[in-house]
Amino acid sequence: MKKIIVSAFAFVISITGTTTFADMSITFQWGDIPLCTSGRPNTVSNPDFTIRNIPDGADQLQFRLVDLNVPTFNHGGGRVRLAEGSSDVRVAPGAFRYSSPCPPNGSHIYQWTVTAKSGRQTLGTATAARDYPE
């Protein structure tokens, strides 16, 4: 009986889990954005991103910034088209504009989420977080 339960559990994991989501990764550097600690963000160019292991078939990347200390504030993000067959890409500053990090008191943790898409279908997601100011 134990073998059947373990086998059924492994089967459920194998049909529901995907390695694509876990493998995609993102790193970023804030770059030369103006220092902002007033609580009133500036509109700035995107950070320097590196995205690795983009799933096959992705034709665009969508970016979204969230202040983990104030998740209801909309910092926005952007969208970047991908060349066919892109697996690892660098998205240099200037690809899109967004509302900069600008915590009113001290430092906050900000998280970028990148979503790889083919049309409307999500193929993978990755996140990376950093303090601002560092």
Present the secondary structure layout.
Elements: H1 2-16, H2 19-23, E1 25-29, E2 43-45, E3 48-52, E4 60-67, E5 77-81, E6 89-91, E7 97-99, E8 108-118, E9 121-132
Antiparallel strand pairs: 1-3, 2-7, 3-6, 4-5, 4-8, 8-9
* C-alpha termini separation: 55 Å
CA gyration radius, whole angstroms: 18 Å
Unreliable spans = 1-22
Number of helical segments with 4 or more residues: 2
Our estimate of the beta-strand percent is 35-45%
* Number of DSSP-assigned strands: 9
CATH architecture: Sandwich
User: Helices and strands, in N-to-C order?
Assistant: HHEEEEEEEEE
Mean pLDDT: 86
Top-tier CATH class:
Mainly Beta
- The best one-word shape is elongated
Helical content band: 10-25%
Enumerate the strands of the largest sheet in spatial order, edge to edge or round the barrel.
Answer: 5-4-8-9
Number of domains: 1
Class based on secondary structure composition and strand pairing: mainly beta
Main β-sheet: number of strands, strand sense, barrel status?
4 strands, antiparallel
CATH topology: Immunoglobulin-like
Report on the structure:
The chain is built from two helices and nine strands. With 134 residues, it is mainly beta. The protein has a single domain, classed as Immunoglobulin-like. The chain has a four-stranded antiparallel β-sheet. Strands 1-3-6 form a three-stranded antiparallel β-sheet, with no helix packed on it. Strand 8 and strand 9 form a beta hairpin. The longest helix is centred in the first third of the chain and has 15 residues, at 2-16. The termini are far apart.
